[in-house]
Amino acid sequence: MAIFLESLFNGLSIGAVLLIAALGLAIVFGLMGVINLAHGELIMLGAYATFVTQNLFKGFGEPWFDFYIIVALPVAFVVSGLTGLILEKGVIRYLYGRPLETLLATWGVSLILRQLVRSVNWVLMIAIGIFSLLFFGGMFLLKGRYPEKISNLITGTILTLSIALAAITGYFLQQNSPKRMTELWFGTRNVDVTAPAWLRGGIPIGGFQVPIARVFIIILTIVCILAIYWFLNKSSWGLRIRAVTQNRTMSACLGIPTEKVDALTFSIGSGLAGIAGCGISLLGSVGPNTGQNYIIDTFMVVVVGGVGNLLGTIIAALGIGILNYLIGSGILVIFLIDIAFLKPLVDILMFFASTSMAKVLVFALIIIFLQIKPAGIFPPKGRNAQL
User: How much of the chain exceeds pLDDT 90, in percent?
Assistant: First the structure.
């Protein structure tokens, strides 16, 4: 029984990690129909925001360091949320209803964000700041003042000049700035996030210990689920989001600002990815490829649960997490090895009794499940089924 309870908790904690990573994607992909391959990089940005917050709190001394995670959670939400807002306004907004183009564009954004983390320093940030000031300032002054053809020509000119001036400034600073200006912030190596003292160790239960960090992630996941449920079902903006999801044209006719709803929805989904990054950073080191370790699993969770269904996402995440652990750790083999007529099944499970091979078997089972129920555990109904 002790082995079973320990295995169940470990699988549950893996499911909680998957769920907190999939919550934001469930909103963006489920409600908006946007295939965002940069979702993993938004998780990565949340993890790096946690790392930076931790380093800032180290300067305040030991008593304050233990509370850095409380500040890191909203910081990670804001950093990833603002990045998602920029992504929605700059790229996604022009690609709604074109899933293939959205997939390719967000894949390109994911590559850019990973390389940005590897290369970012003060010189690069100054160059980006100069470009943003020139381009967006010029676009603000240009807005609505000229006919469309002239406006497009001026926009292209402003874009070219902004890139050129930013590149020249960056090159000059790179050649003439002191070392601290050109030193990489993060680089290509992974960085470590140290958990506060109150999140270290474990809670003894029976014959095993429950890691406190994983309990914290489970609690954080429950809080996020309750907050999202309340927002979507009890708040006025949640009502607007559900209305636009079901019928965009009618919602616009009724005065709902659909563009603002799109931006808010994408920002919230991206912010949740940042919170996921904050939680994931407590489990291991953080690197430019951190998000790629979760992007496939999170898409599987959303698809298996049923697109846009919060309850289905919860069940799918916990089910996939528990199944992954039970198969990968070989626990199922221990429970079934004494049953003679299940020997062929035991042999198969023994072959897949490793972390990587367990994922292969789980993916195969998911493919079989989707052949039976292609719309997931809870298929969309009504107008949502046609979106």
Answer: 11
Q: Is the pLDDT of residue 24 over 50?
A: yes
Handedness of CA 298, 302, 308, 309 (dihedral sign): negative
Give CA–CA dist 340/334, Å, rounded: 13
List CB contacts of 379: < 8 A, sequence separation 6 or more: 306, 373, 385
Q: Map out the domains of the chain with their CATH numbers.
A: 2-120+184-386 (1.10.3470)
Reported in sequence order, the residue ranges of the chain that DSSP labels E, i.e. its strands, are 202-205, 208-211
Q: Sort 364 into a burial class: Cβ within 10 Å, 0-12 / 13-18 / 19+.
A: exposed
Burial (CB < 10 A; 0-12, 13-18, 19+), residue 103, is middle
Q: What is the pTM of this model?
A: 0.86
Q: Which helix (H) or strand (E) holds 55?
A: helix 39-58
State residue 337's pLDDT score: 72
Helix (H, G, I), strand (E, B) or coil at 79: helix
The more confidently predicted of residues 74 and 285 is: 74
Over range 299-306, report the average pLDDT: 85
The pLDDT, as a whole number, for residue 386 is: 47
Instruction: Show the tokens assigned to 282.
Output: 């407590």
Residues 6+ apart with CB under 8 A from 384: 245, 246, 308
Give the position of tokens 């009794």.
Answer: 353
Nearest to 268 by CA among 93, 51, 38, 84: 84
Q: What is the CA angle 38-43-49, rounded to 5?
A: 125
DSSP state for residue 30 in the 8-state scheme: I
Max distance between CA atoms of the chain, in angstroms, equals 81
Give the pair of three-digit tokens for residue 137.
């300032």
Strand partners, 202: 211
The H or E element that residue 336 is part of is helix 331-336
Single-letter amino acid, residue 372: I
Mean pLDDT of the chain: 83
Distance between CA 225 and CA 166 in Å, rounded? 42
